[in-house]
Design a protein that fits this description.
113 residues; two-stranded parallel sheet; mainly alpha; 56% helix; single chain
């Protein structure tokens, strides 16, 4: 419980610092004027793109080495603990004018009173 609270507080602090940084950059660009702001935006864009490419390469390397979290479609290590095909039984409650199609479902007609 304490760890979850610490993570939440750290996330809030990080969001606050990021927000303050964005406001500071915005104020800086407004004070620079339109022409110089466009030049500064180009410089910022180059560094942001470089950080993005490095993050993507690091993530790909971690997944390739087997240390990253790879789940979902196209994952490097699919979950083989489930038995296939997976059968899900569920109850569907519907009115008299509803059309429900499905396999392995229990249809229960709901009567309104």
């Amino acid at each position: 419980m304490e760890r979850a609270l610490g993570v939440r507080i750290a996330g809030m602090v990080a969001a606050l610092v990021l927000g303050m940084g964005l406001v500071a950059v915005g104020v800086f660009l407004v004070r620079q004027g339109l022409d110089r702001s466009a030049q500064w935006a180009s410089v910022f864009g180059v560094f942001l793109n470089l950080v993005g490419v490095l993050t993507a390469l690091f993530s790909a390397w971690m997944i390739w080495r087997g240390r990253g979290v790879a789940t979902g479609i196209g994952s490097a290590r699919p979950d083989t603990t489930q038995r296939y095909p997976r059968v899900v039984n569920q109850s569907v409650h519907c009115g008299s004018d509803a059309y429900v199609a499905g396999r392995d479902q229990t249809i229960v007609r709901h009567t309104w009173r």
